[in-house]
């Protein structure tokens, strides 16, 4: 028979073991900021869907080191103020160890000071180069830099011996970042910008800007923005009979743009991640296995095609998974392991982060695609 003191010690030890087991089984909390509704929902909805799909797959396979992953998603509606409020809530109330998103450059730039101060890793799904240039200690991104997209377009224009272009950019964070890159890289590619105009995110007619472009001597027009504006531009250009090639940014790299632009989308060229042409890639492509698996999984669960934007969330979740497996769930350890990521074949490209590069992708992350018969095809 146990003595009273021994019984109390044994009971206390049992409670300590139980508490330890409960702690070990506590979920790893990851926050997510996506524009699930609002004008940028074509970005945020597939990102939200993809992130939850991947977290569910991780948990179904036993979690991370035996612990469940809990994804806490807030809808920013593409509003920087709401993004800031949600970021603070994730950090202060939900006690997340990392955040993925936001969906847009503007929202991301608004929350960067918050995550930097709180020392919480952020893996943005937005494209603006200024998100990671210059490098911010706690901020990474999965979307291909707009500077890489500009280079891809300019190199194509060089091959076609076109040197005079018109640029038409949206007056928001994504558009201003793209405009900076278009102007900064022009001279090194021998490009002359003969018309430089903007439009508002909510504008519904860009006929005036396109009329100016038609008389500018431009050999091509480059539009930089996200839906619905670029679709309006495509339709207006068709109505005006604008007879020069139209290039769009990777901001419209989904079937949603084709739906919005209709017949006016035919022949438009844009840089994109490989996911929208995954089935056209050679078998030797390093990303093809991940791309095809993602497309198949997304189609099965959501009865829609997995796209370029959902792919940014796929990469963010899987990059965090790798960091958590290698370094544990302390925010500082996650940050350090993200920075050590090498040769990760994701949806957006082959990622190689470093202390000097928190974007992690090169020019080969993009392919040029054209729209033909309401679908995407590789530009040869």
UniProtKB/TrEMBL annotation:
Gene3D superfamilies reported for this sequence: 3.40.50.2300
Q: Which UniProt keywords apply?
A: Amino-acid transport, Signal, Transport
Tell me which residues make up the Leucine-binding protein domain: 27-360
Residue ranges crossing the lipid bilayer per the database entry:
none
The record's listing under SUPFAM superfamilies reads: Periplasmic binding protein-like I (SSF53822)
> Quick one: a GO biological-process term for this protein?
amino acid transport
Family from the record = Belongs to the leucine-binding protein family.
Record protein name field: Branched-chain amino acid ABC transporter, periplasmic amino acid-binding protein, putative
